Amino acid sequence: MDTERVSRNLKAFQTWVPHLAAQLASHVPQSSLVRNADGDWDVEFRGEFLYGPGGRSRSEKAAEALALAPESRVNMAPLSSYNVDLITNRFLSRILRRGTDAGLAFLRYPSGPQGFHVVSFGLGLGYHIPVLMEQVDPISVCIVEPNLDFLVHSLAVMDWVGILEMAAKGRHHVTIEVSEQPSEIARRVRAHLRYSCPIMVDWTRFQQAYPSAILTAAITEFYRDAQLIGIGLGFFHDEMEMVRASYMNLRNADYRIFRQSPYPMPTPVFIVGSGPSLDDDIEVIKAYKDRAVIISCGTAARVLMANGIQPDFQMLLENGAAPYRALKAVADEFGYADTVLIASNTVDPRVKEMFRTPVFYFRNSLSSYTMFSPGDQHTLDESGPTVTNTGVAAALAMGFRELYLFGVDLGTRTQGRHHSKHSLYRHDDDQKDGVDGAMNFDTVFDQVEVANFGGVAHTEAIMLWTRDALGRAIGRYRPAAEVFNCSDGLLIENTRPMSSSSIRLKSTPETKARDLARAWERSLLPAAEGHFDERWQRENWPETIKALLDKVQVVLDGSGRDLNKLMLDLCNTLITENEGPPTVAQYFVRGTLLMSAMCLAYYVRRVQPPERTDEFWTIVEEEFMDILRVLAIQADWFFENIEVFESDEELFEKVTEWCYD
């Protein structure tokens, strides 16, 4: 064994991955590092070998053979007008039209092996790693190994110094993880890709190092959810609306502010969504309404009130006129009485007029949060992407530790019934003609996942994102918090399936009233006079946005048409969470810019014939510069007209009709 190599590698781990270095230094392997007949290193455990004769050669050749194989890559679907904003759609349409007019075509897969991310599911002794590095020339490297023995043995076999020191050059991201759980491995890989560069997931190269049921399951889950890595980056016009709504909601101190509380409260909480299984549980909710805090999430309000249940809290996350109309219809039909609104500061400003007590929390990861929030204690962790997330996050943040989920199906067992029959959503057999606020449901449940009580449920991408966020939010409070899922939809991590008929509450009306009073005292505080003016007048907001756009222009000019460099520098300019809170300007423009860059990256690697790629680069550079021009003009216009529009629909009508030239 080369003890000097082991020493060098350990020193590199101590420098770059100190938490893992301590594990490596203290771990006593159960297996042995041995030489095989070929003179190569192998791992032996109870007479079984990791590689066997010719193992190193097989590992290297397998990696070489899969260089361009689609099954060894993440293949993202091209973005379309359906899932991008107006400005990105304009960029995408123009680059494709100009490209095709010039006689260019676009391949289904990139023509070369280069990519941004390399992921190794398992390490073994790392024989395949140099092959992957040469193939892909990556910026980002992620290795997750279930067996710490192999990492210890690899110290004597491979050159860890070269890999770990990539991070020292300032342009590379390297993550080495140890985990034995497939779901955890998949999550950590997704987190690494999201942190390193969420817009370059397409054509990510991955390799399974050796046969393993754990690694196979991890790859399956990772590939299934890879589409979630680049989701939720935001859109420029959405940021406009959320800043406009925040401005209108907060300029008068006629509301209260939510604050997180560290003090636990024992009263149980019913979190109520409007999924189809709610109809089966409504009588149980009614029976316990005086002994449990009832939190209505979005459109669940009508279901509850139609069944004689007045919620204690009404949650609202989504901005826009459609949620306002839905809540207004419930207010007109039933009235909210003493129900307390807990809503994002970005909701339609007309919503708060319907409630005696509106309470705003500051929705993070938005320009309006950075602009107006008085501090992190006034936000909710994992409050999206749906209002169900808001309800769970608010209950936990107020201090409640016993939660029951109803109607949180995140999909459906039966495709024809997507919400409760009492909700405002129309169904095939229930058109709700003439009902104020009634809405069509256009989402397609095109995926199948494990259901809460066994079997499967139909779902889709946003619901899967919701499920993952719920699991993370609840996990932060475990084991102190216990969450029971009574919904007949998706299985949710960190919750316990429970039939509603099994619920036996020990609380009383008196204990409920006591804890609600504590929530008022600790978490629902009066707004501070002068807060709005102080925050709003801190900066010349249009000028900060234009200054950032100038920096993006410098990045584009300095890329040298090196795609990996451009995407890394663009992400480093717009996504700076590792250095500190993002700025208002970053939040304002980065969603649209990053989505446009994702379109750029997808097509510039697929130009046919490849030797004409430079022609396409000229097109995308010109059109990307035009995005910067449009964003600068619209930023000026928006802040000059922030008080003009009554709703997001009026704002979007104006920007839809915008004359870009």
From TrEMBL:
InterPro entries: Maf_C (IPR045377), Maf_N (IPR045376), MptE-like (IPR002826). Residues 7-229 form the Glycosyltransferase Maf N-terminal domain. Residues 266-413 form the 6-hydroxymethylpterin diphosphokinase MptE-like domain. Pfam families: Maf_C, Maf_flag10_N, MptE-like. Residues 538-658 form the Flagellin glycosyltransferase Maf helical bundle domain. It comes from the Bacteria. This is DUF115 domain-containing protein. It comes from Paramagnetospirillum caucaseum.
